[in-house]
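Worked example (supplementary).
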Amino acid sequence: MPELPEVEVIRRELEPLLTGKEFAGPVLHMPSTIGHPRPEEFSAALPGRRVKTIGRRGKYLLIYLDRGILTIHLRMTGNLFYAEDGKAREERFLRLSLPFTDDSALHYSDMRRFGRLWLTETEEELQELVLKKIGPDILNDLCREDFLDLLAKKERSRLKALLLDQGFAAGMGNIYTDECLFRSGIDPNRRVADLKEGEAEKIYQAIFDVLKEGIEYGGTTFRDYRNSSGALGDFQSRLAVYGRKDELCRCGTPIKKTKVAGRGTYFCPCCQK
DNA sequence: AGCACCACCTGTGGGC
DNA sequence: TGCCCACAGGTGGTGC
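After joint prediction of all chains, the assembly is encoded as:
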């Protein structure tokens, strides 16, 4: 579900709400949601720790504590919901409740159960256990020069596959990748080696623009995404190609859907070459 | 190195 | 109307 913009929207909302709060005893409705440490250790270790700041790397939300780091990945259908009164809004897919000592709470629900939480004691442990194969955050930690350098090392890759590769750079998902390639005028099947003068720069700019806009519009709610107050995103109204098979592109050509890198891929055969 | 597949889950929507 | 299959904002593993 959530890509970089959706996670960033959640981060911005939660940071002022959670900073300074102290965790009480968690309730694990589905213990397998905990990736590390073992569920019972997690439950014993979290109470008493306080939230310092909230960060993000790609699609990972990083809740820095006075001791250790609580990391969350929402995968396809994970949702975080903050409740001032501590009450969860729906029970069906509730996997985890993290109450605070002031009786407010952070709830985690996840229909498809793919999402995970990790509690690590140090930055090094987080790196080793969770972020080992994750590249730099594509919005905050990758300048144009570095992006172009990294791209040059991946001559044989298809653009769509590369942008989706979190080891290359972290944050792009299926929706924003299709939108980025549309804005760049690049066919998703093209390979890096075939890019012409100026096209790589165009892609970098499109990544930046589309992610920024996604954040400004509160993320994309195509199906399940909700922010931490339960509200829908707005960026779906701005999508040029994603989810618009057979609808007309602004150039008048019907948008096509194919499969690239194993994912449903939308593009305009006229605007993207 | 890159890619195609499968697995992990549950729900929904299109086609027949 | 109802059933079945394909597919869904992600990622990790396998094997070619």
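Two points are worth noting when inspecting this output. The CA atoms of residues 84 and 104 of chain A lie 4 Å apart. The helical segments of chain A are 4-18, 39-45, 123-129, 144-152, 159-164, 174-184, 199-216.
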